[in-house]
Amino acid sequence: MRRKKIFMISLGLSAFVLVGVFAGLPFSYGQDESPRERMQRTTGTVNEIDWVGGKIVVDTDDGYLDEAVFLVPDNAVLTRGTETISLNDIDQGDQVDIEYTGSDGSLKIVRLNDKNMANAE
Q1: Residue 63 belongs to domain spanning
Q2: What are the pLDDT digits (tens) for 62-119?
Q3: What is the pairing mode between strands 107-114 and 67-71?
Q4: Contacts of 106 (CB under 8 A, 6+ apart)
Q5: How far apart are the first and last CA of the chain?
Q6: What values do phi and psi take at 91, rounded to 5?
Q7: What percent of the chain has pLDDT over 70?
Q8: Same domain, yes or no: 21 and 46
Q9: Which residue, 2, 11, 76, 90, is the most exposed by fewest CB within 10 angstroms?
């Protein structure tokens, strides 16, 4: 009887430890160094363009960012309607819709749609 009791206690403790170990795995094993950045959206008017530095300054309409500096990485998707454009095709004063990641000081454009169809070719 004493052996059976010790066995049951050992089995219970082992199960408790195993559940604790496996429950923690999804939060630590194989997780990326940095959490996936959340996609955000804004609209506004292009105020400044740095074609060489790959940056644009946008006066946003949402009131949250006010004036924001966005980095335009090489893999950003830039469009005007259904046409793909380059950063050189964007002009000061153009209305834009922007999808971006990051936080103030490090905003990176993922997608930008230039709504100024007057510049469409």
Answers
A1: 40-119
A2: 877 788 999 999 999 999 999 999 999 999 999 999 999 997 678 999 999 999 887 5
A3: parallel
A4: 71
A5: 89
A6: -115, 155
A7: 66
A8: no
A9: 2
Tokens standing for residue 46 = 């292009």
What separation in angstroms does the CA of 36 have from each of 7, 32, 33? 45, 8, 9
Domain count, the chain: 2
At which residue do the structure tokens 């999804």 appear? 26
List the structure tokens of 6: 């010790």
What does the alpha-carbon distance between residue 87 and residue 77 come to, in Å, rounded to a whole number?
10
Residue with tokens 């230039």: 114
Q: Are residues 53 and 108 in the same domain?
A: yes
Instruction: Sort residue 80 into left (φ over 0), alpha (ψ -120 to 50) or beta.
Output: beta
One domain, residues 82 and 47 = yes
- Domain shared by 27 and 44, yes or no: no
Q: Which two tokens stand for residue 101?
A: 């990641």
Please tell me the distance from the alpha carbon of residue 57 to that of residue 72, in angstroms, as a whole number.
11
Same domain, 49 and 71: yes
